[in-house]
Amino acid sequence: MDRPTLIEFPSDFPLKIMGDAAPDFAQQVLAVVLRHAPDFDPASMEMRPSSGAKYLSLTCTVRATSQAQLDALYTDLSAHHMVRVVL
Fold first, then answer.
1. Does residue 43 form part of some domain?
2. Is 17 part of a structural domain of the chain?
3. How many domains does the chain have?
4. pLDDT above 90: residue 2
């Protein structure tokens, strides 16, 4: 049984993912996002470097279809060695 949620599905859901500004950080994050949201448009990914350019913040707005999908996406992103924070 699904746990209660305040989100109505399907819904456009923004995820903010932060990590070190490594050359392949965005590609690594994109691969994880596409595993859980295959319809995500990579061109819609927003990228913002930190003021010192040491970190990179990515915003991916996915079309979420269930709480289970979001939970799995958060779990996989949070476990990735390049990801520092997922909001």
1. yes
2. no
3. 1
4. no
